[in-house]
Amino acid sequence: MDSTETGITRKGKAGDIPLLEAIVDLYAAEPDLLTLPQLLFASVLPLIDADAVTFSEFHHRSGEFRTLASIEDEPARRVRAAEAYRRHMHSHPFWQHDPDFFGEWALRESDFFTDAEYHALPIAQEAFLPSGSHRVMAIVMRHDDYVLAVTGHRSVNRPAYSDLERDRLQAFRPHALRAYRQAQGRTLAKLTPAGRLRLAYPELTQRQLEVASWIAQGKSNEDIATILGVGIDTIKAHAKAVHGKIGSEGRRAAAVIAHTVPPFAQLPPLWTLDVDAWGGPRRA
Asked: Which pTM does this prediction carry?
């Protein structure tokens, strides 16, 4: 049986109080997707004695990824680092966050590179070292057709992550994945049909969203015209535009879209939706 479903951690030790506290705090907070990253930061930073933690989502099929960091950074530097990371992430499966490569392990940069080798890597020179990051340890979790990564960073001149710290992060992994799945459920439960459509198709206008949400709730064009106080021809025009933008040919398709999880590649970065929930300004 998969440990992500049982909640049993293979490396967790009954006497490891910091690990137990991090797990209890994670579940007690009952986060949604917008509050989960900050909660993970608060849990992982002391758990592995990291200087910074990043929360990332990778969609390997499209090549897209998003990253949020626990610390502030100069915006232009962060943009440059993200661009450099994109250029060099395929140089090694560790940087690519390949879930088949990571499995259920917590992996460290020191497991694959000596200090001299790390400092010579283009991804280190262009993406990490300019921000002072040297030590890297990550867990990767597969979810649907994309993966989540929680990564701890230590600054230059700090020691490599120990086996104890690796085991702690590894034991924390199944709980982080379960918390993400639960957070997704809470987030979707709060969304209206219009909210789901807005996430999946940000190109829809406000009026088109209104029409689409009523279509998703089973209303006829005549009903929608009455509700919105406009002519039936106007509603037909909006409905045609909606079907064209979402690639559907019927009203049932709009209803399905409004009540399911939008694909990763069609979601805007979550932190653009509610900046305050992330505790800081928008990041690259």
From this structure: 0.73
